[in-house]
Amino acid sequence: MSSSSLVASPSLGLPIARMRSVFSADAVERKLGQLQASGADREHEGLRNTYQRMLERGPQRFAVKPSGVPDMAPLYELLPNFTEVLDDVKRHVALSQDSHDSLELTPILLLGPPGVGKTHFARQIADLLGTGMNLVPMSSMTAGWLLSGSSSQWKGAKPGKVFEALVDGQYANPVIVVDEIDKAAADAQYDPLGALYGLLEHDTAQHFVDEFAEVPIDASQVIWITTANNESAIPDPILNRMNVFEIQPPSPEAARRIAAHLYTSIRGEHDWGKRFDPEPSDDLLDQLSTLAPREMRRALVTAFGNARLADRYRLETGDLPRAGAGKSRIGFLQ
User: What share of residues in the chain are helix, strand, coil (percent, to 5)?
Assistant: First the structure.
């Protein structure tokens, strides 16, 4: 697959975009012609429609990267326990500057307990890089073909998530998050992670073949972020293809900063928010910092409502819901 010359180089920190072919239109036309010649196009209507959609959309997708090394200070502030990962991303972004090279990131594994913000981090990175994000939740897999698609010979067959991200999406280099990779249960018939062996290698990913469409797709520009709670459940050949970062829960002071950020974010997202105090009180932050940030947002929304019922526009600690009996885990909002 190839990429064309630079099509945009906006100033003011907007992304640079190149156009890159993610598949060969000639290969798709040949496949469609063979299907029609066999007389099986009606029987395999989904496959025929997939080929026609590919031809209608064309093979060109945006391959984007920041036009300079972005100011990542807000992310370091918001994600204090992801400093090492942010440093790694920053290095890769710097290498891609002042050249026609695409942005390449070594696949990342975020290893840590539930609630430390691994998926939230991936969303922030997708926003930073100006590309899209696709979530593949391995814990909810019902079949091994979630990543690589299923054969068109099977009833209800369809393309996999990688195919959908590249063919149906806008970008040649989307962020694909394989969430809870350690919960992918392999069986004797199919290894759910089997497709990753090739996808995480740049050279083989250039010619990734989805089992449904059976047309080579260029997945070499995909930015892979995987998450896991338990490293021992991941096969060594997969681990060896990734940079592994152990993510620890944030400190109490960092948790206060997260709570303050959530307060400001909720306030700014709603028209009613402008009536409330611009900043939360120290007492409120102290109490919020004892919660898992998954719970912080819910607690804050409840507190805003309770304050309004009390005809106040200032949150008090009594507005927060009472702590539940269960033990809270400190982490980021997912």
Answer: 40, 15, 45
- Section 118-137 average pLDDT: 86
Look at residue 2 in the predicted model and tell me its pLDDT: 53
Output the pLDDT for position 185.
59
pLDDT tens column, 277-312: 999 999 999 999 988 766 888 999 999 999 999 999
> Distance (Å, rounded) from C-alpha 49 to C-alpha 330?
47
Find the mean pLDDT for residues 72-101.
88
- Closest among 286, 257, 269 to 79, alpha carbons compared: 257
Asked if residue 213 lies in contact with residue 51, where contact means CB atoms within 8 angstroms, the answer is yes
The span from the CA of 271 to the CA of 115, in Å, is 29
Is the CA virtual torsion 132, 112, 76, 223 positive or negative?
Answer: negative
- DSSP for 142-184, please give it: SSTTTTT---TTSTT----HHHIIIIISSBSS-EEEEETGGG-
153 is written with which tokens?
Answer: 């010979």
Question: The whole model's pTM is what?
Answer: 0.80
Q: Is the Cβ–Cβ distance between 31 and 73 less than 8 Å?
A: no
Between CA 332 and CA 264 the distance in angstroms is 15
